[in-house]
């Protein structure tokens, strides 16, 4: 198999991203990937199954953490792909990227998860030979910052 172009890699990431069963349950959809800036964003809508506090109609903290982790991980995947460059062949890159996993993640819940539409974005703080550190943010449709996260991923 030959190495895909950046646009083909983006489509590959989109397919893998939306194949994760819990991501489908949340309704998280990849909305943008910027290889040059090493950023990624995804969106989801509030629905009854995502509510943690039904008296105040607030997102469950686990849903917030899931969105941050997923976006951070796929942002890390883009950065790791670029970091590996032409040093190794596509098959080995693919194997390493598919094993990418969260080593550590910190979430700061800044405001209650109120809203109808949410955007989760990720950016890269550092890319090493085996670890990537991502920063993530979750905003609602009013652009209120709901939560932030920082995570380390092994690839």
TL;DR of this structure?
The chain is 33% helix and 37% strand. It is an alpha+beta fold and 155 residues long. It has one domain (6-154): Hotdog Thioesterase (Thiol Ester Dehydrase, Chain A).
3D architecture notes:
This protein has 155 residues and is of the alpha+beta class. The protein has one domain (6-154): Hotdog Thioesterase (Thiol Ester Dehydrase, Chain A, Roll), CATH 3.10.129. It has 4 helices and 8 strands.
Topology, pairings included?
Layout: H1 6-17, H2 21-26, E1 29-34, E2 39-45, E3 51-53, E4 58-59, H3 61-84, H4 90-98, E5 101-109, E6 117-127, E7 131-140, E8 145-154
Q: What is the general shape?
A: elongated
Count the beta strands: 8
The overall pLDDT, averaged over residues, is 94
User: Helical content, roughly?
Assistant: 25-40%
Report low-confidence residues grouped into runs of 5 or more: none
With strands numbered from the N-terminus, the spatial order across the biggest sheet is: 1-2-6-7-8-5
CATH architecture descriptor name: Roll
CATH fold-level assignment: Thiol Ester Dehydrase, Chain A
CATH class: Alpha Beta
Calculate Rg over CA atoms.
16 Å
* CATH fourth-tier homologous superfamily: Hotdog Thioesterase
Structural class by sheet pairing and helices: alpha+beta
């Amino acid at each position: 198999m030959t190495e895909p172009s950046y646009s083909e890699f983006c489509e590959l990431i989109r397919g893998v991203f939306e194949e994760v069963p819990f991501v489908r349950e949340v309704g998280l959809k990849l909305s943008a990937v910027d290889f040059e800036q090493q950023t990624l964003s995804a969106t989801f809508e509030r629905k009854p199954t995502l509510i943690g506090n039904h008296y105040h109609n607030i997102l469950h903290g686990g849903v917030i953490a899931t969105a941050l982790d997923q976006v951070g991980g796929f942002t890390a995947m883009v950065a790791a792909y670029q970091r590996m460059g032409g040093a190794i062949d596509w098959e080995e890159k693919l194997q390493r990227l598919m094993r990418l996993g969260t080593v550590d993640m910190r979430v700061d819940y800044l405001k209650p998860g109120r809203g109808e539409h949410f955007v989760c974005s990720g950016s890269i703080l550092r890319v090493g030979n085996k670890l990537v550190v991502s920063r993530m943010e979750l905003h609602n449709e009013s652009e209120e910052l709901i939560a932030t996260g920082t995570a380390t991923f092994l690839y």
